Input
Amino acid sequence: MFVIQDDLTFTWPVDVNVPADGGKAVKQTLKARFEAIDQDELNRLIAEGGDEAVLARVWVGWEDVVDAEREPVPFSAEMRQALCKRPYLRAAVVATYLEAISGRRAKN
Output
């Protein structure tokens, strides 16, 4: 049975490859809370503002995000915007959202 949901939000694991010394990347994972939007709105956001516009609309929360002292960082629009300026994080979250809404299973 398929259940039509008008307001669909979901939590999905996001693997982020954080650049490190020696040409390596360290995998870190967070749980992003997303709101599913329809294809027309997604296309419009991509055309008008790219990744940052998409994430401003669909990335509505998170878990497992901490600061350098390992203190939890609460979700806010301002903090989301600041984190979206980190290309490695922005790319990982956008790719994960697109995979999730295409019906793929989470990797974790």
Remarks:
- The chain has one domain: 9-101.
- The first strand starts at residue 9 and ends at 20.
